């Protein structure tokens, strides 16, 4: 069972850079990362809507239930931040560094959530091995950026460093989103419907953003 879950995690990880690359191409046509993100979220929302209509039609009234904590809906906003940020990062630092920096942020934030027991996540003590892992991630980011820095002038190099830091910060969003969505999933006993709510909120937020800018 553990191997199956690890395999699913790896497959999910493979999908992220592919999604980012496709959405980056889409943003070239829409000329806006927010329009591209809206299309991406909207497509996911429609897909999850159809799936839940088939498998969970009884859960649609849960949105109006007083038992739901609406802070859980912040998961969708975290998704918007991460996806839109990736669309800004990829053309500036490339696919590899985009993935490495955001994954570094994800792992670092995951350790923080586990260590502090945030979002009702089970407490997991910090260990030396976790610390070594975080240092190795940082080393990986530095090594992958060395060749790029040698080819760029000082000004562009400083800009790259700025975007690398932004990538790490953006990477903090998915663990928060996952923790929040997990609470929602446990409350309504349906990960599919929790995903639908997250995508729906994200789509609505992006529609508002694109209507303003």
Automatic annotation (TrEMBL):
Entry keywords, A to Z: Membrane, Transmembrane, Transmembrane helix
Transmembrane parts of this sequence: 34-55, 67-89, 95-119, 131-148, 160-180, 192-212
One cellular component term from this protein's GO annotations in UniProt: plasma membrane
Descriptive protein name: EamA-like transporter family protein
Organism of provenance: Staphylococcus felis
């Amino acid at each position: 069972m553990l191997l199956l879950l690890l395999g699913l995690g790896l497959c999910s990880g493979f999908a992220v850079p592919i999604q980012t690359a496709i959405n980056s191409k889409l943003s070239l046509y829409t000329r806006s990362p927010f329009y591209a993100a809206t299309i991406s979220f909207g497509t996911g929302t429609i897909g999850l809507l159809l799936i839940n209509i088939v498998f969970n039609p009884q859960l649609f009234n849960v949105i109006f239930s007083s038992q739901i904590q609406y802070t859980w809906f912040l998961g969708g906003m975290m998704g918007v931040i991460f996806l839109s940020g990736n669309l800004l990062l990829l053309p500036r630092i490339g696919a590899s560094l985009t993935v490495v920096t955001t994954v570094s942020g994800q792992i670092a934030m995951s350790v923080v959530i586990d260590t502090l027991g945030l979002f009702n996540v089970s407490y997991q003590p910090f260990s030396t091995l976790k610390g070594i892992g975080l240092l190795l991630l940082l080393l990986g980011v530095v090594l992958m950026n060395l060749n790029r820095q040698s080819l760029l002038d000082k000004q562009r190099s400083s800009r790259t460093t700025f975007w690398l830091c932004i990538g790490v910060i953006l990477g903090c969003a998915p663990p928060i989103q996952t923790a929040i969505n997990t609470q929602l999933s446990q409350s309504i006993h349906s990960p599919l419907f929790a995903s639908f709510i997250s995508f729906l909120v994200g789509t609505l937020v992006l529609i508002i953003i694109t209507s303003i800018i």
